[in-house]
């Protein structure tokens, strides 16, 4: 028998009369959705363009800041992702763009308000980073103390007992985020120097976990579910590349590099795709990641963009 699937758009609440459990994550339930973009909430079909220097024609015709257009693309992606029925092995789905929308929107509005030559692309939220703060690789202290972002963090509709969302009260530190933001803090001095030419974004906005709380990456999914995630996230990435006028994508890890190259090739975009090693301590040979990555950025000719 095929494995039982969970519908991401259905609620997982215990029932006295049933042992069945399902997942729900509804954007309509999010109380923090930007009031500024309500007039454009029907903007769901944004055509791709083969011209990398121009944003999609539909978004360009709407008089909104770049940050608001980016938030619209992300909102559209979240709406589509919640239609996916995941296998029963995926017991928990966290979408910090929904329950941590206040801080996520603050990140976008503060640091992505114009064109970006370089896009650093991560894979998806980690349990102690973006899942807690709404910021990619969002280790608590770096988000609060260096990026100067803080705000209300809600809850996913269903939490894994060992991976609860406590927002800025979280006592765990995401090593990947500490390493990544720490490197840029060392090289750039201020966030303004980092974000002048670049931006950090995740390919997929949702975190997936099994019953024990083990992270399930998009790369580990199989069959139709993986195909759908790739299709939807590829479409959104293409729109973001064009919206920001990106010239260079740096995949943080090989998975992100591969997805970026696929999107660039499929849409005939004039974008160079590079990569750096993922800062996870679980990556093989990842000792002294910061020094190795700093040298890698020099070798790629990118270090000049991150000088203090």
Automatic annotation (TrEMBL):
GO cellular component, one term: nucleus
Cited InterPro entries: SMUG1 (IPR039134), Uracil-DNA_glycosylase-like (IPR005122), Uracil-DNA_glycosylase-like_sf (IPR036895)
Assigned keywords, A-Z: DNA damage, DNA repair, DNA-binding, Hydrolase, Nucleus
Region Disordered, annotated ranges: 1-22
Record Pfam families: UDG (PF03167)
Uracil-DNA glycosylase-like domain boundaries: 111-289
Subcellular location: Nucleus
Keyword Metal-binding: no
Top-rank taxon: Eukaryota
Family from the record: Belongs to the uracil-DNA glycosylase (UDG) superfamily. SMUG1 family.
UniProt name for this protein: Uracil-DNA glycosylase-like domain-containing protein
UniProt organism field: Vespula pensylvanica (Western yellow jacket)
Species lineage: Eukaryota, Metazoa, Ecdysozoa, Arthropoda, Hexapoda
């Amino acid at each position: 028998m095929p494995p039982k699937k969970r519908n991401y758009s259905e609620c997982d609440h215990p029932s006295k009369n049933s042992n069945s459990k399902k997942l729900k994550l509804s954007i309509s339930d999010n109380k923090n959705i930007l009031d500024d973009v309500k007039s454009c909430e029907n903007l769901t079909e944004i055509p791709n363009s083969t011209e990398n220097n121009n944003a999609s024609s539909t978004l360009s015709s709407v008089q909104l800041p770049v940050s608001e257009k980016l938030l619209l693309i992300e909102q559209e992606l979240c709406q589509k992702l919640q239609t996916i029925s995941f296998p029963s092995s995926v017991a928990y789905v966290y979408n910090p763009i929904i329950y941590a929308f206040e801080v996520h929107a603050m990140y976008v509005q503060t640091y992505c308000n114009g064109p970006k030559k370089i896009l650093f692309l991560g894979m998806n939220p980690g349990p102690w980073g973006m899942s807690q703060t709404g910021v990619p690789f969002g280790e608590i202290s770096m988000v609060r103390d260096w990026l100067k972002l803080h705000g209300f963090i809600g809850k996913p509709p269903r939490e894994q007992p060992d991976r609860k969302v406590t927002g800025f009260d979280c006592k765990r530190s995401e090593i990947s985020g500490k390493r990544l933001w720490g490197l840029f803090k060392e090289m750039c001095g201020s966030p303004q120097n980092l974000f002048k030419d670049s931006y950090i974004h995740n390919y997929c906005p949702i975190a997936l976990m099994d019953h024990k709380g083990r992270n399930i990456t998009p790369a580990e999914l199989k069959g139709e579910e993986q195909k759908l995630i790739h299709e939807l996230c590829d479409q959104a990435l293409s729109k973001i590349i064009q919206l920001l006028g990106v010239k260079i994508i740096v995949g943080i890890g090989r998975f992100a590099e591969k997805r970026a190259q696929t999107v660039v090739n499929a849409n005939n975009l004039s974008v160079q795709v590079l990569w750096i090693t993922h800062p996870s301590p679980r990556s093989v040979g990842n000792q002294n990641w910061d020094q190795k990555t700093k040298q890698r950025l020099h070798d790629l000719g990118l270090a000049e963009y991150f000088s203090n």
